[in-house]
Amino acid sequence: MNTKKLADKPIIRCYNKPAVPSSVQARLTAEGLFVADYGSGWSLSSAQVPDKNHRPAAGNAFNRIIDISHVGGLGLIRTPNDDDEIITVGEWEPNCATFREIDGVKLKGVQMARYGIITPEDPEFSSLDSIYDSGSSTVDMAKQSEEEIYETIENLDCQGRLRSPSSL
């Protein structure tokens, strides 16, 4: 992968915080899957979100899901609880949108094509963790961290620690 090809692709950091148990959120994160729900069923329209206070956040998350499913991108995923202390780092390819129902919750999201898990034992953990210092919103752009994310992916690849989902 060449970073020059990423000029128009989103670089994001996101939290998996759908209305499913935290153990399921951690599993989805470890599988390289960013998901959102906001109670909107299968819709990616923030107008369908029942809680008007959550519509701006939903619109931001849904827009990133749509953008990434069209053009791909790079990013980080973690759970808001952080007790699992993992950060998934990876890349999305176009057409990566996915829809799943778990415990009656309709989740929509994007599946990373290549991803690896970073834990506190990894030297990159602190710097990737600091990318989340900008706030707790579900999705934030992380373009300023593109090179660091890219280098982490390349390091994980050299170490044989990148995974691909079994469904691809």
Provide a descriptive summary of the structure in words.
With 168 residues, the chain is an alpha+beta fold. 27% of the residues lie in helices and 25% in strands. It has 4 helices and 8 strands. The strands form 2 sheets. A 5-stranded mixed beta sheet has the order 7-4-3-1-8, sandwiched between helices. A 3-stranded antiparallel beta sheet has the order 2-6-5. The chain is globular and about 45 Å long.
Unreliable sequence segments: none
Would you tell me the structural class of the helices and strands? alpha+beta
**Helix content range:** 25-40%
Rounded mean pLDDT score: 90
Total count of helical runs of at least 4 residues: 4
Task: Give the termini distance in whole angstroms.
Answer: 18 Å
Strand line-up in the sheet with most strands: 7-4-3-1-8
Beta content comes to 25-35%
Compressed to H and E, one letter per element, the order equals: EHEHEEEEEHEH
Largest sheet: 5 strands, mixed
CA gyration radius, whole angstroms: 15 Å
Assembly type of the chains comes to: single chain
Task: Give the number of DSSP strands.
Answer: 8
Shape: globular
